[in-house]
User: What shape does this take?
Amino acid sequence: MIGSFPKASYLFSMNSSSADVAAYIWPSYHHEPRLAHWWEEGDGEWVTVRAHQPRWPGHEMPKIPLLGYQDEADPAVMRQHIDLALEYGVNVFIMDWYWYDDAPCFERQLNEGLLPAIEGTDMRFFLMWANHDATSLWDRTTDANDLLYSAATDREQFERIWTRNLEKYLTHPHYYRIDGKPVVSIFLLRKLVSDFGGIPATRDAFAWLQEKAKSFGLPGVHLQAIHWQIVPHESREEVGELMDVGMAELIRVCGFDSCTNYQMVQAAPGNIPYADFAQTAVSTWEKDDAEVPSFFPHVSVGWDNTHRNPGMQEGVTERSPALFQKAFQQALDFLDTHPDRPRLITVNSWNEWTEDSYLLPDEQWGYRYLEAIRDSLT
Assistant: This one.
């Protein structure tokens, strides 16, 4: 049942542009010890990027970074990225954040790269808890999806995780907030509810998190769900009867403050030309917004996961900076017609080379994707 929901009020934009632009970071382009057996050259998933070759006529591969194959856990590199992002209007980084088998993973870019580099800048960051399992999807030699590390979480572990993250991250002066509340984004809501054993237990865990945040002197947390219309990573075996619960309904009853997408492929088929891909996703925004608390528009650069899947023969084709700029302008227009909420746009992504969805400059397009954002904001 569609209801009416209070929309979050905007606190403050840390730049002078017409929106806060938040780009996701996939933190794999540095040495990650727990995945080193797949990324044998010692610089993370760059080995997968370098190895990729075209799969079909006109397939625009390989992707070659204009800044080189950088170590993104190096604070000097991350300061370069921060300065570049701010120059072109990206003023928030959303860090994909992982916890596997009772230990963090992929944290070096955040801890050793971003946090030392962010001091003295206007950049902000927040966490998107990527609570999916680690599987052999990241092994470029196979199409299998075999389990390596589990992301399953119970209540006791949830409390350890978020007490730790409150101490380390959510209270950081550069952490992004809405209404004074640090934003916490969750990737797989159905999976989390299944892990907890149902909706009441999930609501109780979130109530604990709100109170815990207050014990750190915060007014609570702003819970943001990743909205899935198309669900490629969740199986019925993982989440059982929750697959029959509509995503909007789940977002509402669990008490989220807002939602957005992580990738346009969550709302559109990933095997079509970019113009159709983007417009299919954009066409879902108004419906989503009517059914949930504040919906923040999302724009992706592209989608092509052939890097990681040797048998895959399809991806989004014919992407270009001009088509991306059209979709980004539609996100700005959406915010203009919804003045009751923060002016926030999420973008996939800053650096997702292995999914062909990155703003960083490459040898094909140079800085034109970043210029598309800057030109739209000015």
